[in-house]
Design goal:
Maf protein; Rossmann fold; 2 domains; 18 helices
Length: 485
């Protein structure tokens, strides 16, 4: 272990930007003469601050540490709170600690130091709650340059599903060090900062399902792209942003609410896309369980990375084009890595015990009974259906038009091949499948590849195949002028 006499020792050839372990990163920050701050930690010990003391040279970085465990003390410092593990509590901690630090030390250190306040408010396992499922809010408010007029900020929400409370606390400590190090050494490259959050960690120990950048250090950063990064880099299986582009932790939108979701590529959203969801929503709102719920239903558009792009990384411009279209239509957006529908249902059920509705087209329902999609499940289709419908889940099935015959095919007139028609009949009988109709049968002839081909060919007929608001944004931004293979 190092002590204060080791302050000038830079640990061999290790540099601040190439550091990958928590020890290397904490030492690099301690040896950096420009960063100085406060550590405020509630609920998971003082695991982040501990690293800076353990590696030596802490006097170069640590102005104060505080751990206001008692609720009355916490309220006295940061104001009253309905929930102590919340974004609101984290924001209050960051504001109070950063403002106090700058007020007290600016005259002394402002010309030579960039101030920061790191905070976390976390619930880990305890004697009263020994079950796994730690979670918390973690953030840093900092100056990206000396005496910056406005601070910058990064807020993260993380799950800590480790095997013991001690391991949860250890993971929290490493994650916090990674965040502080990233803010000072990787802020010019937020994608790299996000990837480095998992240095020394794994998905078995930490899941990051929300990150938000703000302030002058991140001018021009689109947090929707950062949400995509979380999912694409497998820091989480799903992440959310709202119709106004605000990134959120999914529980902030989904908690204890009925949920209706439509999956798709939305490249672009067509009149069929919108009609499918509207017709499903009409039926969903009539469900007794939804009608009797005190919470208004959440209506989501889900874009799974499995469908976004055949390439390993989705084009940023292409992704934002879809996000802009869904924003125009007023949809909250879930970005996910899910493939089978039961994975999506499992995920949503973690946030609510209310009814979950899935708006699907008939071709999608056929896939549910396709054994080739479930090679990894010992029970195949039967297991997947059991996992999908084991809770209050219902599918609303929209018709399609056969492109060869022109016949309209529906849930009732197009049974799956034997023996799966028996399973279809059972699900209809017990109320897990319901047929819905198109408000306009002309929509059933709309095919997304055809729409994209007409846009690329400058054929104006595409405009009649999408909602007017979507047509306007496609024209204004020149979207989808090339067809991806």
């Amino acid at each position: 272990m190092r002590n204060e006499d080791d302050y000038d020792d830079r640990s061999g050839d290790t540099t601040a930007t190439s550091a990958t372990t928590a020890r290397e990163k904490a030492l690099a920050l301690n040896l950096d003469a420009t960063s100085y701050g406060t550590f405020a930690e509630i609920g998971g010990g003082q695991e982040v601050a501990r690293w800076f003391f353990a590696v030596g040279g802490a006097a170069g970085t640590v102005a104060k540490t505080i751990s206001a465990y008692d609720m009355a003390i916490s309220d006295g410092l940061y104001g009253p709170a309905k929930r102590y593990v919340s974004r609101q509590r984290l924001e209050a901690m960051l504001t109070q600690e950063f403002d106090e630090l700058r007020q007290r030390l600016d005259a002394r250190f402002g010309a030579t130091r960039c101030f920061f306040a790191f905070a976390d408010t976390v619930a880990t396992r305890s004697f009263k709650q020994p079950a796994p499922g730690g979670r918390g809010w973690i953030g840093i408010r900092f100056q990206h340059e000396r005496r910056a007029a406005e601070p910058s900020q990064i807020i993260v929400h993380a799950h800590l599903p480790d095997s013991t409370a001690a391991r949860e606390q250890q993971a929290l400590g490493i994650l916090g060090v990674n965040l502080i190090h990233g803010a000072f050494f990787h802020r010019a490259d937020p994608a790299r900062l996000i990837a480095a959050l998992m240095d020394g960690l794994s998905r078995e120990r930490v899941e990051v399902d929300m990150i938000k950048f703000s302030g002058p250090a991140f001018a021009g950063v689109d947090n929707r792209l950062m949400t995509l990064q979380l999912v694409d880099r497998a820091l989480t299986d799903a992440a959310m942003f709202t119709a106004d582009g605000e990134v959120v932790q999914p529980a902030e939108v989904l908690y204890k609410r009925p949920i209706l979701v439509e999956r798709g590529s939305f490249r672009p959203a067509t009149k069929l896309t919108l009609d499918l969801l509207e017709r499903a929503l009409e039926r969903f709102l009539k469900e007794p369980a939804v009608r009797d719920c005190k919470q208004k239903p959440a209506v989501l558009a889900e874009m799974t990375l499995r469908n976004l792009n055949p390439q390993p990384m989705t084009s940023h411009d292409d992704f934002l084009a879809r996000a802009d279209i869904l924003r125009t239509l007023g949809f909250d957006v879930l970005i996910s890595r899910f493939e089978p529908y039961y994975q999506l249902a499992d995920y949503l059920a973690a946030y609510t015990e209310e009814m979950i509705g899935l708006a699907v087209g008939l071709p999608t329902l056929r896939q549910v009974a396709d054994e080739s999609y479930y090679y990894d499940l010992p029970g195949g289709v039967l297991e997947s259906v059991g996992r999908l419908f084991k809770r209050a889940v219902k599918m609303y099935v929209y018709p399609t038009r056969d492109p060869q015959t022109g016949q309209i095919r529906t849930l009732s007139n197009t049974p799956p091949p034997p023996p799966w028609h028996h399973l279809r009949n059972l699900l209809v009988e017990i109320g897990r499948l319901e047929e819905i109709s198109a408000s306009d049968e002309s929509y059933l002839s709309i095919r997304t590849p055809d729409v994209l081909a007409r846009i690329a060919a400058d054929d104006p007929s595409w405009e009649g195949m999408v909602p007017p608001a979507v047509a306007e944004i496609i024209r204004a931004k020149g979207l989808f002028r090339t067809v991806q293979s």
